[in-house]
Structures are given as structure tokens and as C-alpha cells.
Predict the structure.
Amino acid sequence: MAFNPELGSTSPAVLLDNAERLDKLVNGPAADVPDRGGDPLYSWRQIMAVNQAKQDQLDDIITSLDTASFTFSDTTTGLAGTTDGQYFRVPQGEGDAVGFIYYKKQCRSCSCGGLTCFSRDHKVARER
């Protein structure tokens, strides 16, 4: 992309624009601030808001994983033993190769069967 003035310019106007942009990025609201080329840059508050949302999501997951009551022998039992929005796990495998499939109950009723299944390596998610 062509810059006007070009990159490397010693123009005071470019310095002023950069200072104003930096002020918006650091002190402004949670928003995208365009750089000189027009590409969006996340402001500090936007970065913090996104991180806080992810932290809140992780906190909700961790809170719902009560180890004494979230492991079930099969998905039907897990659906019956959890409330909407709770996570539960079902063992998979035998002996030393036991892993878990994690589910999140997404319906108000157990009969609808809405689950999100996470594989052991957390790379694959599928809807049932």
C-alpha cells in the first residue's frame, strides 16, 4: 500500500499523526484504530476486553467442572445428571489409555440431546 507521505518521512505531520494514533490506541475506548495504511489496530482497552471475555469463559468452564460430580459412565447419564450449560465428561478407552470426552449440555431438556463434544486433544469440536 502506498503511504502519503512515504514511509521514512521526516514530516512533522506524520509525527503528529503517529502521536495521535498512539494516544487513541493507549488511552482511547475499546475500538479498532486504523494505521497509516488503513489496516485496523486493536486499542489496549479492546485487547483487555477480549482477554477478559476469554478469561470469564474459562472461569465458567472451570467452575462448572466439579470433579466429584461431573464424570459419568455415558452421555445419557451425564445429560440426566447435569443442568443446562454445565459441562460433564465421559471416560473413553481402557486401562492406561483412558481419556475423556467433554460435553456441554446446551438444552433445557435432556431429551433434545444438544451436546458439544471436545476430543481429548481439544482440537476437534462437533455438534450432535
The chain is about 35% helix and 20% strand.
